[in-house]
Amino acid sequence: MSLKLTILGCHSATPRVNAHPTAQYLEINNRHFLIDCGEGTQRQMRKYKVGFSKINHIFISHLHGDHFFGLIGLIATFGILNREKELHIYGPKGIKEVTVLQLKLSKSWTKYPIRFHELESKESELIFEDDKVSVRTIPLDHRVYTNGFLFTEKAQPRKLNIDAIRQYNEIDICDYQNLKSGKDYRLENGEILPNEALTFPPPPAKSYAFCSDTTYKPDIVPIIKDVDLLYHEATFLKDREHLCEKTKHSTAEQAARIAAQANANKLIVGHYSSRYNDITAFKKEAQEVFECVELAEAGKQYSLNSYPIEVLN
Amino acid sequence: MSLKLTILGCHSATPRVNAHPTAQYLEINNRHFLIDCGEGTQRQMRKYKVGFSKINHIFISHLHGDHFFGLIGLIATFGILNREKELHIYGPKGIKEVTVLQLKLSKSWTKYPIRFHELESKESELIFEDDKVSVRTIPLDHRVYTNGFLFTEKAQPRKLNIDAIRQYNEIDICDYQNLKSGKDYRLENGEILPNEALTFPPPPAKSYAFCSDTTYKPDIVPIIKDVDLLYHEATFLKDREHLCEKTKHSTAEQAARIAAQANANKLIVGHYSSRYNDITAFKKEAQEVFECVELAEAGKQYSLNSYPIEVLN
């Protein structure tokens, strides 16, 4: 079980020299996901040593430029790097049309297949699942159709308690799979050994919720309940809360209220408006409601390998 | 008369941390033009202090990503910056469709007007003209429809030789316009004063030719004959000349041959392939054919205010 999040960009609206639009790289149970892809994301990936060939799934929350304009460049670069593996792109309806049009105009058809998974539902839906990870949408409320994404590790098998098992000669290696799956063991004398006596519980399955961009939307709380790590946009501070309704964004305090209601373990805020020069005020405001807050910054990594969450840099 | 060129990016293919795709900012006779707009151009514009509000005309050579993928982000940023002035975009047919589609999908219609000037001709044509500057296309030969651009200052009026004029009391201020336009002066005694006796020639009109991307194409020479400053792509060195036919690019030597045939004053080469770590070899190769060669580098400026050309940094 492992979960590591790398922030590639976390500012809103226009790219600036040291303020990059939204993009995140998530490593979860040996799956490697890119979340949003603002202009310049591929440059940020190179800067922070994200392996291009590892990415097979890209999740785009919405089609505003600061979350999306870097996608076509990344797709083209994959082609230049002679990618052959299939690439899956999850995003709002329209993402296929605009990507294909740009490839057509540049006569740069990729040699690798691209599978588009266009999203239209207003309900949370399962959009990816394998034996390691599942991904659900988190319907958000923004000026255009927008989804957040909930990434959840699959529960792993129980761990064998070898010392306990060795006390019973009759337990054979071919019984181990049943034990890992949680089954009790019946001895030849008929006695039932409860599974807990022979195994340890697996490390808890971890989860990460990405919520950007959105107004304050408490009805997402049941979807992200008890999430380990929550990224929630905080474009404004309370001083500009009046802008939230028009722009469909949130304040740091509102992000913290969602984290508190969801019983999240830790909150990361980002998507800061360029109106603010000092982002530390976002942490301070959020901490008035929810203690465990981190500020997203490009290059910052959050790991869930150890418990509690470790900020790597 | 003034001409200043700022290189914003000059590498081919994929953006890297310190290798930015093609974009140039040209100031010519108080007109401010952006030429090509690879991903990340707006960040480079901020880095090198290019005023966003000064740009009213953008020229796109072709629709490959490394010359074009930064355009939509710049258009969006102009909107965020509350631009009201009309923006003119010159580029291959299709540029309007893809731009409009992206604005539609993001529901981010600009409040300022955008005028698209879609190019289809395979002949050189005049695409911009006012009292200060004219711009012609330079048809190039690349994998997709591509134009270079020739920017030429309009000839300015002759300068009055006040000391000479003052020797003739009968020459009045209301005659000055005729003198500036080159007319001779008839004295009351019937004598003809040749214009050259009363005026100085204006500073020579300067010109800049941008040629990227293209194979070696000598038939552009008549279009750019006697150009002051020539940018010509040099993706490869001679060691990889065999790649030029397939990729439709040029070597540094070929760029220099065009400069020599065109009797250019100075050649700038750029659009280096990422295969080369040391770009100084491009200058060396070109100088075997043409003496006056500069290497394009992001942030480098070339000024024609003084004569000969001055490299500012």
List descriptors.
Metallo-beta-lactamase, Chain A, alpha/beta, 313 residues, homodimer, 7-stranded mixed sheet, 21% helix, globular
Number of strands of chain A: 19
Strand content of chain A: 25-35%
* Assembly classification: homodimer
Largest interface: A-B, 36 and 36 residues
- As for the CATH topology of the largest domain in chain A, it is Metallo-beta-lactamase, Chain A
Radius of gyration of chain A: 22 Å
**Name given to the CATH architecture of the largest domain in chain A:** 4-Layer Sandwich
List the helices and strands and how they pair.
Two copies of one chain form a homodimer.
Chain A: E1 3-9, E2 23-28, E3 31-35, H1 41-47, E4 57-59, H2 71-80, E5 87-92, H3 95-105, E6 114-119, E7 126-129, E8 133-139, E9 147-153, E10 159-160, H4 162-165, H5 176-180, E11 185-186, E12 192-193, E13 199-200, E14 207-211, H6 221-224, E15 229-233, H7 242-247, H8 252-261, E16 266-270, H9 280-287, E17 293-295, E18 301-303, E19 310-311
Parallel strand pairs in A: 3-4, 4-5, 5-6, 14-15, 15-16, 16-17
Antiparallel strand pairs in A: 1-2, 1-18, 2-3, 7-8, 8-9, 9-14, 10-13, 11-12, 18-19
Helix pairs in contact in A: 8-9
Explain this structure.
Two copies of one chain form a homodimer. Chain A is of the alpha/beta class and 313 residues long. Chain A has two domains: 3-156 and 203-307, Metallo-beta-lactamase, Chain A; 159-199, no CATH class. Chain A contains nine helices and 19 strands. In chain A, the strands form four sheets. An eight-stranded mixed β-sheet of chain A has the order 6-5-4-3-2-1-18-19. The longest helix of chain A has 11 residues, at 95-105. Chain A is globular and about 75 Å long. The A-B interface holds A 13-17, 39-40, 42-43, 46-47, 63-65, 68-70, 72-73, 76-77, 80-81, 92, 94-95, 97-98, 101-102, 105-108, 143-144 and B 13-17, 39-40, 42-43, 46-47, 63-65, 68-70, 72-73, 76-77, 80-81, 92, 94-95, 97-98, 101-102, 105-108, 143-144.
